[in-house]
Design brief:
By secondary structure, the protein is an all-alpha fold. The chain has 15 helices and no strands. It is elongated.
Length: about 260
């Protein structure tokens, strides 16, 4: 039926339908449609391939081609299609290239968001780029991806976000949250600095929000150093931070003392 479709609307609707059907009889059409001159048709075809559980041996080279498509919509569809595939790691060099040189922040953000599904070496390579990206959206997407990765380099990169005086307070808060979830003891001095700034009596709401996340992270990490720094911050504080410090003290080390797989 696809071969008989003569209008854009018919071809597009058929490809959308194929994306919701078993791919046994449609994958050849989808592979062909990825070569279509119209970027909307290519996007629909790549999206359809993403729904195929076993799209055949042609899937990886097709997705690799789609990841380098001139249209960002196609690249985003290819990232979505590749995200949950065992073959994702074979696309790591292409993903690294996108992270460093794609002109669209949305594409770079999506790469950062799926980086933790790669090997540690590949993930660190991508997150190193993403955490220093000029786009706040890319840095925002990268921070949650750092949580499952055990790496001293990632520790250093997160501390750099916490310590960067020019960094957005939103990103500093997200970096604090990531440090806590990573049980990153090395981040405690940087977290304390964030907490102190938000504990000032006339601190801005954004600084207070970041400080609350920093206090929570320090409580998660736990230990004598975290306890001492939390007590020190409480000496000069505002009511919101007082409550955050108290909650952190009560939960000191509870999160990071529990083994996680």
């Amino acid at each position: 039926r696809y071969a008989a479709a003569t209008t854009f609307t018919d071809r597009y609707r058929l490809l959308e339908l194929m994306g919701h059907l078993p791919c046994v009889n449609s994958e050849t059409v989808l592979f062909t449609a990825v070569q279509d001159p119209d970027h909307l048709i290519r996007t629909a075809a790549v999206t359809g391939l993403g729904s195929c559980e076993h799209p055949g041996g042609q899937a990886v080279p097709t997705l690799k081609q789609a990841l380098m498509d001139p249209a960002p919509e196609v690249r985003l569809a290819a990232l979505q299609a590749a995200a949950n595939r065992s073959a994702l790691r074979s696309l790591a060099p292409t993903l690294t290239k996108l992270a460093s040189s794609d002109l669209w922040p949305a594409v770079r953000s999506r790469v950062a968001a799926i980086a933790s599904r790669l090997s540690q070496k590949e993930a660190v390579s991508i997150l190193r780029i993403a955490l220093e990206d000029s786009s706040i959206g890319v840095r925002r997407a990268a921070l949650p991806s750092t949580v499952p990765i055990v790496s001293s380099e990632i520790d250093t990169l997160i501390a750099a976000r916490l310590e960067d005086a020019g960094e957005s307070l939103e990103i500093i808060g997200l970096a604090a949250d990531a440090a806590g979830k990573r049980c990153q003891e090395s981040a405690l001095p940087a977290l304390f600095s964030v907490l102190k700034k938000g504990a000032e009596p006339l601190a801005a709401p954004e600084a207070i929000s970041a400080a609350i996340l920093a206090a929570r992270a320090m409580g998660a990490v736990g230990g004598e150093q975290a306890k001492s720094l939390l007590q020190k911050a409480a000496r000069r504080s505002n009511p919101a931070i007082d409550r955050a410090i108290q909650a952190a003290m009560e939960a000191l080390g509870d999160f990071c003392s529990v083994p996680r797989s």
